[in-house]
Design a protein that fits this description.
The complex is a heterodimer of chains A (281) and B (75). With 281 residues, chain A is of the alpha+beta class. Chain A has 8 helices and 5 strands. In chain A, strands 1-2-5-4-3 form a 5-stranded mixed beta sheet. In chain A, strand 4 and strand 5 form a beta hairpin. The longest helix of chain A is centred in the last third of the chain and has 42 residues. The radius of gyration of chain A is 23 Å and the shape is globular. Chain A starts with 8 loop residues before the first helix and ends with a helix. By secondary structure, chain B is of the alpha+beta class. Chain B has one domain. In chain B, 29% of the residues lie in helices and 28% in strands. In chain B, strands 2-1-3 form a 3-stranded antiparallel beta sheet. In chain B, strand 1 and strand 2 form a beta hairpin. The chains are: A alpha+beta (281), B alpha+beta (75). The interface between A and B is medium-sized, with 35 and 29 residues.
């Protein structure tokens, strides 16, 4: 597609005011439909380019899920109203690409590096929300300027699952919980805080365990057994056996915790979905 | 690339998916989204077009849209 930006910032600023106020754009302004189509096309183009990267050396043969979209009129208007100083062309995620895969956070770092490298993104353009979550939301975002802004969200499956469950919670408990707001109702507040803790404590711990397991798997495979796993005087055979035992325990613990967490999140999602479906909102 | 238009009712969770296959599918999907957006009367209905290689992928990355009943008729 033609990547030249066809409109002036002034035109988009004026169009933004109409979107914010829900009024029909004045004569001479670019049509809303054309502007959004431009964003949708550039998001699809970035998606295609990312899909063409070979992630097999990093992620193996597991599936990689990539989706793109242009922001809906509702979410665009909400953002422009929430941030009055922003305009369509300064909102980072009008064009968005979502990348998800079954991966560790170390592999996630590799995916981020590959995508950032493809577009020459600088370290400041990589927003790591894993350590500094937003209302519990954890992922890594890459901000591209091509010249339209595009946001690429890179999530592990667990991070993605949590985010989708939280979105369901927001449909029931109020969209404000996505922006650091808490419900007035005490029970609802506890649910929201509990969900955020699942993300920032339980999932974080699981990610650390997974990285440890993966490093140990590699060490066993390559015969580089960490001295902490076996006394120095132990023979190589016993050190390897100890490492394999520890790996087996770590693996079982991790699988069990992950299964439990997925079930917990699925139950929560079913609960939120059920509340709305029953018309109790 | 294929495109998918999802009409999602935030209150009832009912949803409807329209698939646009083929190389230009995502553009057709986006045009349909704009038409639906322009005609929409109920603001509880969220209309989104998503570009992806398959509906299965969309169901994983945007699972929140697929919790309720799938409808064949307009919602």
């Amino acid at each position: 597609m033609d990547r030249r930006w066809p409109w002036t910032n002034g035109q988009l600023k004026r169009l933004s005011a109409h979107v914010r106020e829900g009024t029909k754009p004045a004569e001479g302004l670019p049509p809303y439909n054309d502007v959004m189509a431009f964003y949708d096309n550039i998001a699809a183009e970035v998606q295609t380019e990312i899909r063409q990267l070979d992630f097999t050396p990093l992620l193996g043969d597991g599936p990689v899920e990539v989706t793109s979209r242009a922001k809906t009129i509702d979410t665009l208007r909400q953002k422009l109203m929430k941030y009055p100083a922003q305009h369509i062309h300064t909102v980072q995620d009008v064009a968005g690409v979502r990348f998800e895969a079954e991966m560790s956070t170390e592999q996630q770092d590799g995916v981020v590096s590959a995508i950032a490298g493809l577009y020459g993104a600088q370290p400041d353009d990589v927003k790591d929300y894993r350590e500094e979550s937003h209302s519990g939301y954890r992922a890594v975002h890459i901000w591209l300027r091509l010249p339209a802004r595009v946001e690429v969200q890179v999530r592990t499956h667990l991070q993605g699952l949590w985010a989708n469950v939280y979105e369901s919670a927001a449909d029931v408990l109020g969209r404000g919980i996505r922006y650091e707001e808490l419900p007035d109702d005490e029970s609802a507040k506890r649910i929201v805080v509990g969900m955020q803790q699942i993300s920032t404590e339980q999932i974080v711990q699981m990610e650390k365990n997974r990285n440890l397991r993966d490093r140990l798997t590699l060490a066993v495979a390559e015969g580089h057994i960490d001295a902490s796993l076996a006394p120095v005087r132990a023979g190589r055979r016993s050190a390897t056996a100890k490492a394999e035992d520890k790996l087996s325990i770590l693996n079982n613990e991790y699988m069990s915790h992950e299964l439990h967490l997925r079930q917990e999140l699925t139950t929560l999602k079913e609960m939120f979905d059920g509340i709305t479906a029953n018309g109790e909102d | 690339m294929p495109g998918f238009v999802i009409e999602y009712n935030r209150r009832s969770r009912d949803y409807r998916v329209t698939t646009f296959d083929g190389e230009g599918g995502h553009r057709e999907a986006f045009e349909r989204r704009l038409e639906l957006e322009a005609d929409r009367e109920d603001t509880n209905i969220e209309i989104v077009s998503l570009t992806s290689d398959s509906l299965d992928t969309v169901k994983k990355t945007h699972s929140r849209y697929f919790a309720g009943r799938e409808l064949l008729a307009a919602i």
